[in-house]
Amino acid sequence: MIGFLSLHRLIPYHYTMHFCRNLLLSFCLLNQAVFASVKMQPVDSLYKTKDLQDVIRSFVKSKGDADTAKSHSNLSFFPSVGYTPSYGLELGLVLSGGENHGDPANTTFSIFNTNIFLSTNGLASAEFKHNDFSNENKWNLQGDYEVGRTIAMDYGLGTGRPHQGDDSFVLNGLPVTITPDVMPIQYTYLKLYEKVYRKLFDDFYAGMGVIVDGYQDIDRPRRGAARRRSYNVMYSIKNGYPLGGYWANGILFNLQYNTRDHPNRPYKGIYADVVLRLNSETLGSEHNATQLKTEFRKYWSLSSANPEHVLAFWLWGDYLLKGSLPYLELPGTGADADERGGRPYTIGRFKGTSFYFNEIEYRYPITENKLLSGIVFVNAQTGSNQQNIHLFERWNSGEGGGLRLLFNKYTRSNICMDYGVGNYGARGLFVALNETF
């Protein structure tokens, strides 16, 4: 435990990708540093498609140089820098990449993402995620390893309820101003999971996994009215959780169906995942709990000539079947695996003992060379509390649009810039790498 608490200067990545620190010029300059790690590929079937690396090459190489896959890297590397009053000066580094571990005709592209962040206010994070497929997709390994100290904005439980401060502008899931009745919760955390899937037959997998979620050194209002109004304190006392920290560790049982043509930016296919999570006191959890997690994604390519015209549909749910969860483990806005769901709201703006989210998005190319494209989206979310708000009873919606800059055409990575509006005056700008889903 002492070793874990010594990590109190770390914080997760999803609060650090503020728009002001995504400097496109830096993307261009530092992306050149990874060109030397290029994997040799025999044929460039995407020579008519232009990405950011092609744009850079057009300035630094002669016109006679061929546009081939040999001059591209499967790595995307860029820095981030910015400033907010809560976090101080922020410096970050993002590395994303992937490769095929078998025949591309029958093996899904494997991907990974690494994020490191530091701030002058003593906040930082380290995160590594991977999704690997063996030859012919016989095995699929998915993992996530995170350690950090972060600040969560606490708006209470349930959907369909306005809150003072809802009209604050949101940058990448974080409000730029914090009103007095929004309770920031600062805490140290360690999160990891590893899931192993075995292919049973075409596109269908089954597997198991382990998950560890630890929350320690949780700051809380010390006394008076602020403490009495703290949703975290009230919930923890009611459900028998220590106020300073707790663990939620368990075993995962998984079923998955996957026909997507690419994990970063699918043009077609289906992804369905069902997970039964069993938190156990035997494994160190504060309380036993049983959760059912479901996810369904469907992609329709609307044009054979331009497959980038895509209609995408996303359903995500997390249902508490038995027992109880610690407050910081409750599902909500941005609680999906990539922490991207729920634009335009603050991460954690809505949450509940059970939570459901859906979204539909239309993606379309803008330029003929596919360098620039766009999207429009509509979504809705609903959550329950432990009192009078039930799942599917009250909803909050969001809608908006955005632009995509193709970052690496061989890994289908792109830079996403989205603006959305929602209920109660919510509005926000979101900048990230790769599609929301």
Automatic annotation (TrEMBL):
GO terms for cellular component: outer membrane. InterPro entries: Bac_surfAg_D15. Keywords: Membrane. It is found in: Membrane. Residues 239-420 form the Bacterial surface antigen (D15) domain. This is Surface antigen.
